[in-house]
Amino acid sequence: MTKQQITAQAKSAFPWLIMILMSSVTFVGILSELMPSGVLPLVMADLNISEVQTGNLVGYYAIASAIFAIPLISMTMQYNRKYLLLILLGGFAISNIIAGLVHDYTAIIALRVIGGICAGVMWPMIAAYGMRLVDEKDHGKAIAVIMAGTTLGISIGMPIMTSIGNDYGWRIEFIGLGAFIFVIALVSFFALPSAPGEKLTKGSSPLALLKIPAVLLILLLTLLGVVAHYGVYVYITSLVDEIQLAGGVESALLFFGIGSLISVLLAIKFTDKYLRLLTILMFALLIISMVIFLMYGGTKGIGHFAFFLWGLSFGPLVTLLQAGVSRQVETAKDVATSVQSSVFNLSIMIASSVAGLLLGIYSPMSLVYFAIALSIPGMFIAFLSKKTLS
Question: Where is the Major facilitator superfamily (MFS) profile domain (predicted)?
Fold first, then answer.
């Protein structure tokens, strides 16, 4: 049997253990980004800083991710994917551990920016890395498994890390996550296969990709989907208070998390075959859940069901959009997903800003109307994109 035949045979069997290991990377990646939001009062009291300054620990991280993703992915295209990922994991680990040890706010912001830069490279790179290790027919499944770590991080990881922070202090939380990331890096060193980089050409540059109509279409769907979801999600506490949901925000997040986990499992199974249908359903379920909030949000049980439906819609968001953009290019998938990832992060910032303005003028239900207004065109664009999402 030739070397090519052995490689083809290895690819034909889906490498579940490797993909789950990669999923653990996205799990700690999302925790590294969002962890401060669960312990804001503790950080404020310890560093003697304002609420806005504490929020910047998440904000500057996201800005760094958005700004540096495209140029750094382009600069690191030729490097071996495995060793680049190990360097990024080292950056995540060190920035979190040192942030847990120092007491200077400016130094902690600088460390958060370093973490954000690592995230800006990791998010698009790891999806493209995973796709190289499987047959083309399994690209969607690979992305779904790898990105499942983000959903698990939000629904399971964040409550656990917040609990650790509240019980033992936010510094122990940061240092503990950094140590856990080092463990993942060590396992990755021995378990992940090597994958050479690619040469960046004029045809695969970010500017060249932005000239492809299908890529622009996916970026538009990214903008609509992310702003619609996160415009409400960022202020989920305000929505829960407005509809007076029984059980409060913990109950809302529980049902939201269950829906997200179920949809991730469905995405793993069906993304490769039904990408367009799942994208349409993602927008449709968001519309249905928001309409239920408007009409029956305060009714016991029905409001919880709406959060479950919203979770079903939210869970595969990253997977569907990254699978969509990766299908539009044959090579340099890292660059394509970096462009999509940057638009994703910028869309979160837009969502937070616009929703904050709406909340300052109107009631929290204005955010629900905002989500519906963006989701309707998103659903119709996905419905009409038969060629792009096929």
Answer: 17-389
